[in-house]
Every structure is written in structure tokens, then in C-alpha cells.
């Protein structure tokens, strides 16, 4: 490791608590500067970030319009308490509601995606008078104490001694669902869920909501079979259960649609958004139907920084950039080309079991027969050595995740895909 990066690491190691993820990697990358789809380390080396800072930089790092909006707002007002209305807050609400499915017509702000998921579940409980939550294996709702209760990996809860607070159903992975035997994983999962909801002896309490990601992100970019989301919508309607979609990672243009559920033309009762929506600043929200969103009395939801004017300005600018630069359509087009390149270049490779994705949200499932997390770690490190950053997830940690900024240049993306094919 070069001296500049080493000095930064030593300064942080001397004072940071060990719970952070900073030193999860033996030699973490020390970030110094970002622009567009690139990151520079403390020693001045440039990297192409195909993970967008954990799927945050949808409109690119330091987009000029977002940066200008932040600068302008910083000269007028940064902090505005959540108890005080502001015009910037109204602007953000109106922009958000202009891009979400029509049944959703009210907003509750959050700071992080985990906070948004906590709020959505508590709201569903308050609106229905029920307490049970149903979610799926592989679900990643965030890692705060309130959200991690619904996470599909018990390893996330173990350090805190927190028990799960949900009933888990297998998520229908078209590639790895041995529990479905020879059946359609989507139909089998729906049948299991229907039994849980309608069988009076199932042992499952009537749920307030079903919580899921329309495309699982940390679960490994898992896209459920066609018809699964529609079947879920019908089942929830039939049983009086609220449907909550977590679009924090798969939404905001990432999948080639504004929201991933639009691929199936399914609208939820509540939807959580975050990550890319803030243009690089911490911003999240819950969106829902009026009859649900007016359940609580005033002051039920509060946090000092909920309505921060600076993050609202960044969010407004990010939404404007996404729409005016037609980045959703760009994601669909570049994603289709990228998927075709990877599927063709890796066809027959014993290292790669599955190449999947929608838009610029792609997963490479490594291990043709059994999941191979060691290979994923090795490939991720070799790509970093070549100046290309990719994510890694999946139940076994064996899936390389590509979620680049939607502004990435076509030739830059093509070069990165060539590098991935060469490494694998």
C-alpha cells in the first residue's frame, strides 16, 4: 500500500470502533476524490466504479447540477427542523410524487433506507392493527436494530443479539432454488405463502405486510420469475395484507425502469426509496396511499434532520437530472448491451453459473454447480488491481454485482466488461 493511503488508514484505525466495515477488506481502498463514474484513491490512482458506491451514484458522482444545487442551497439554508415547513421540502415532495406509481400520493421522509423500511413496517402495523411481518430469504432491509429484524441473513443479527421479527418465505431465485424441485420457483413460493396466509392451522399470525425487494440487491441481483409480483399483489389484496416494496437499491432508474416493479406493472401499498434518490447525500422516504399515510397523529414520526434542506436540494436536482438526461432509458439500453456481452463472453465458462440482470443492475453468479465465494473474492480483488471496482453479494457471497452510474460512457463500460470477461 502506498504511503498516503497507509497514513489515512493508520489515523482511522487509531480511533475508530471495530464495528464499522472500514477494515473488512485487508487493504481497503482509501477514497480521495470522485467524479462521474470514477473514484481516486489517496495516492492519486483512478478507478472505474461499477458499483456506484453501493448503488448510490445513479446520476454519477458530483454531477454538476447536483453540486450547484447543494452550493446554492448552502448559501441560503442548510438545517431546517422537521417540525418546520419549507419550500424546498415541498419541492422535494412534488418531484418524488411525480415519478412514483399513481396510487402513491403522500410522503414521509427518512434519512437512510433502513430508517425508511422501519417506518414503512411500523406504519403498516398501525394501519392494519396487526403485528406480524412476512418477508423472504435473502432480503436486505438495512442493518439498524429496527430493520435488521427482517433481514434474510441471521449473521446480520448475531452481533447485536437481536431475534428475527418476521416469518420468512423462500425467495424464488430462477437459478438457485433447490427447494422448488422441478417446479416453477415463483409458483411454489406463492403456494407456500398462500398456505401461510389462508390455512387456519398454519401457525402464522395474520400479517400487517409483506416486505420485499422487487429485485434483490444484496441477495445477488435476483429477479423473481415473471408473474410472481402480480401473484403476490393478488394474494395480498385477497387477505387484507399490505404490500411493501423496497426499491431503495433496485429503483430510481437502476433496472431500466424508474422502479423495478414497473417491469411487472405492479404497484405496492407502500414503497421505500433511498440511495440514488439523494444524489450522493443521505436521503430516503416512504411513499404510500393517503388512507395509509394519514394513519398517525402529528409527531408520531420525528428526527431532527428529517427535513434537511441541503439533502432536499440535492434530491430535487438528482430527480431532475435522471429525467431530463433520460438516464432510465439509458440504463435499459446499456444494460441490455452489457448483459449480452457478458453472456456471450462467459458462455461455457466453468467459473460462471449465471449472468442475469435488468438495466444497469447485473449479477454474475460464480460457481456453475456449487456457489464459489472464494472465486468471487479473488475476481473482485484482481479487478480492483486492474482499476475496476465491482460489488459482491449473494447468499454465499459468490455473486459479483455491477451497478455502475447510469451516466457511464459506453466505451468505458465496454472496456470494463472486457476486463471482467478476461478475469473470469
Describe this structure in words.
The chain is built from twelve helices and 15 strands. It is of the alpha/beta class. Strand 14 and strand 15 form a beta hairpin. Helix 3 runs antiparallel to helix 9 (309-324), helix 4 runs parallel beside helix 9 and helix 6 packs parallel to helix 7. The chain starts with a helix and ends with a helix.
How far apart, in Å, are the first and last alpha carbons? 25 Å
Indicate the radius of gyration in whole angstroms. Answer: 21 Å
Q: How much strand content do the residues show? A: 15-25%
User: Structural class, please?
Assistant: alpha/beta
CATH homologous superfamily identity of the largest domain: Type I PLP-dependent aspartate aminotransferase-like (Major domain)
Number of domains: 2
Report the principal-axis shape.
Answer: globular
Quick overview of this protein structure:
With 424 residues, the protein is an alpha/beta fold. The chain has helices at residues 3-13, 52-55, 64-74, 87-97, 113-128, 185-198, 228-239, 290-293, 309-324, 327-345, 373-385, 410-423; strands at residues 31-35, 38-41, 46-49, 106-110, 132-136, 167-169, 207-212, 242-246, 270-273, 284-288, 352-357, 362-366, 388-389, 391-393, 399-402.
